[in-house]
Design the sequence.
């Protein structure tokens, strides 16, 4: 046996699994999205989606919420990652645990926590009322704000860790050099650390945007049936209306939409970096 | 001192970290708090203290069945994902196959593709080929999304390992199997270990695939919790959730012992 054969043998189970249980299901879904009732193919499912104001509104809401969620995660995640990277080793381990613990907890469990906090009798809604910031009877549950709050908590760890990985590799002496040349702390942060951590920022934003556009567990539970997002609509088509070709078409639109927004974004971010 | 951070910003950083900590961990604390409540209503802060909801969980057939299914599934997935992912990582690391870059990307692609898109494809394919979903469908599906984690942790460990150890063993006359078993496997072990616990955690907590591939009698713990949250949550859901949080905390401690939490965070 040659070395190459040995490597091929080691790789074989994984390749079989990926081909048979990953690529084929996705192809099956693509095929079903254009499947006609009599065995032929049709674009009716896509036409139905794009011709219906309800679904277009769902699509617009999904994009809007994902952008807001990504922006907030970035605004909180960057300083968090910087503080983690520059903290002394012991506090750093605790900060990492702080980020990993929620990351590794089931999404269902975390969302449950928010359901309790955001409900009418919950702590957050109650505090807002007590401070006179919200009318009586006010509840955050079943609003877009609730979805944003819950999703940011779910996705912030992805952003913070993506950026952390890059900042840890930046030589701290570059930052020191900028300071000795007369930069203030914040100026050095903006002129040195921020541009150098751009790869992490791009990777983290891509990940957060994709995950938020495609998640339905948290939006379903916090937004309820009236505030639907695209992934939740896919879920409904699969489990409630049992219209699988339509579900497949929506999943394809979700996939295409994610790609369509991400590709130009990568280009722009890449240009800014170069 | 040039490195000094202005004191005002230092204070701001501490406040910022404290607020973020409350935001990230708050929901988990709330869940544990609710589970300790004496009242039959979900409320935080809890009214009175009792363990009665844990009693309720341990005598609930639905929760016990779901927990047993989740445990079996997670163990199966840990085994298969570690074997498949570990072997693939060794092969990818050696770079002796054509198109190595593409292979690496292919093996990590389930991490990038939204799970819902994979889940719906898996459901449709399984139904077309085999009819109703089964434990095998969940096992295969979870293995596909868990194996990349093992690939990643194992590749990270192999990148730091001594590339000449295997050559040395070869010059000393060790055969292929002996080299794999006595040299390469021990080198991979921390990565395989960490990957295995990640795979367990992923499968045990996974909700999206499990929701699509569910049927009566095939509900995992997260699916059971999800179902209750949609309809009639009582504090026993919080008790189950708290037990799941405890499992996660245990897994993080174990992973930290194996590879160190910082290594995990920066790969």
Sequence:
């Amino acid at each position: 046996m040659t070395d190459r054969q040995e490597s091929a043998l080691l790789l074989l189970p994984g390749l079989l699994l990926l081909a048979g249980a990953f690529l084929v299901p996705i192809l099956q879904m693509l095929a079903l999205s254009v499947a006609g009732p009599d065995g032929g193919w049709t674009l009716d499912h896509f036409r139905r989606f794009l011709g219906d104001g309800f679904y277009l509104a769902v699509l617009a809401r999904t994009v809007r919420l994902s952008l807001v969620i990504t922006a907030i995660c970035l605004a909180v995640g960057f300083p968090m990652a910087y503080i983690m990277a520059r903290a002394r080793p012991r506090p750093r381990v605790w900060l990492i645990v702080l980020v990993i613990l929620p990351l590794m907890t089931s999404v269902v469990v975390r969302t449950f926590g928010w359901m309790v906090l955001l409900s009418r009798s919950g702590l957050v809604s109650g505090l807002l009322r007590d401070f006179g910031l919200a009318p009586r009877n006010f509840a955050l549950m079943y609003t877009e704000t609730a979805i944003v709050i819950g999703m940011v908590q779910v996705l912030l760890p992805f952003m913070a860790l993506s950026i952390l990985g890059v900042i840890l590799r930046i030589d701290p002496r570059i930052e020191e050099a900028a300071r000795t040349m007369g930069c203030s702390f914040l100026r050095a942060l903006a002129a040195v650390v921020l541009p150098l951590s751009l790869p992490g920022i791009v990777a983290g934003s891509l990940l957060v945007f994709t995950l938020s556009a495609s998640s339905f567990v948290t939006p379903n539970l916090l937004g309820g049936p009236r505030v639907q997002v695209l992934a939740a609509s896919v879920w409904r088509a699969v489990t409630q209306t049992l219209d699988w070709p339509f579900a497949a078409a929506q999943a394809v639109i979700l996939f295409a939409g994610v790609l369509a927004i991400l590709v130009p974004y990568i280009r722009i971010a890449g240009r800014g970096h170069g | 001192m040039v490195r000094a951070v202005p004191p005002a910003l230092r204070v701001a950083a501490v406040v910022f970290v404290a607020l973020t900590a409350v935001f990230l961990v708050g929901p988990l604390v709330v869940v544990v708090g609710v589970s300790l409540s004496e009242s039959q209503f979900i409320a935080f802060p809890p009214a009175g203290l009792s363990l009665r909801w844990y009693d309720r969980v341990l005598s609930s057939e639905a929760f016990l069945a779901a927990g047993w299914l989740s445990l079996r599934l997670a163990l199966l997935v840990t085994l298969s994902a570690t074997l498949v992912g570990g072997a693939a990582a060794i092969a990818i690391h050696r770079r002796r196959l054509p198109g190595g870059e593409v292979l690496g990307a292919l093996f990590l692609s389930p991490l990038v593709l939204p799970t819902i898109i994979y889940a719906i494809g898996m459901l449709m394919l399984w139904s077309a080929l085999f009819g109703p979903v089964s434990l095998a469908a969940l096992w295969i599906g979870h293995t596909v999304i868990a194996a990349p984690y093992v690939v990643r942790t194992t590749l990270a460990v192999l990148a730091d390992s001594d590339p000449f150890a295997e050559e040395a063993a070869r010059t000393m006359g060790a055969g292929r199997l002996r080299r794999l078993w006595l040299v390469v496997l021990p080198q991979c072990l921390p990565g395989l270990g960490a990957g295995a616990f990640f795979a367990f955690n992923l499968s045990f907590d996974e909700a999206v695939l499990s929701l699509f591939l569910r049927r009566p009698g095939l509900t995992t713990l997260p699916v059971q919790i999800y179902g209750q949250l949609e309809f009639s949550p009582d504090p026993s859901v919080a008790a189950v959730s708290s037990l799941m949080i405890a499992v996660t905390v245990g897994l993080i401690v174990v992973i930290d012992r194996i590879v160190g939490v910082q290594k995990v965070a920066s790969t």
